[in-house]
Amino acid sequence: MTPADSGQAAAILKVATTLFAALGYDGTSTRQIADAAGLNIATVNYHVGGKRELYLAVMEAAHRAEKAALDDALGRLPGGDPVGAIHRLVDDYLDFCVDNPEVPALWMHRWLSDAGDITELERQYVQPLVTSVTAALAPALGSGVIDPEVDVEYAIWTVIWCVHGFAKGGVLDGDGRRRSAGDRAALRRFRAHLHRTLHLALGLPGPTP
Known about the structure:
Elements: H1 3-23, H2 30-37, H3 41-48, H4 51-75, H5 82-99, H6 102-111, H7 121-142, H8 152-169, E1 171-172, E2 178-179, H9 184-202
Antiparallel strand pairs: 1-2
Helix pairs in contact: 1-2, 1-4, 1-6, 4-5, 4-7, 5-8, 5-9, 6-8, 7-8, 8-9
């Protein structure tokens, strides 16, 4: 592939990511992607294949970015302050989703049965990440830092549901106006709420950091 071809493929992937995140797989056509990229459908097919192949490439790229961020966060998890480390992990995940809103948007479309004929992505991408976080929290559970009665996996999913919802939909203020995740005051308030919710859900000792 020539540099020009590589550049066009990257541009198509970027446009497709934006459209799939906004409209979902079912709501996006190859023509829409081609038009947004300033290309014809034949050129899109030449560089990336059909709509299904392009969607799989978009989801793989999203997964790679999320996994890299999570691996970095988990690498910082061990230490002498397990409670603080757990809260830093939540901060890292929230920051990733706020900085990369297309990632939670892509997955939330799938929660609503988007791309229903492509069924392997959750097993291939999501479950291994949840399993890795569960395993990383096992020492805190075994040592009693996390309440042994807690369902850690569901606590992790609670964070995912909340963070994805906030990153995608924001929150309404007192006047009924939508505040996005880019609103600093709304983000600060959500972050504090998320930390308190997780602290209580896991039964962590001491005050919320």
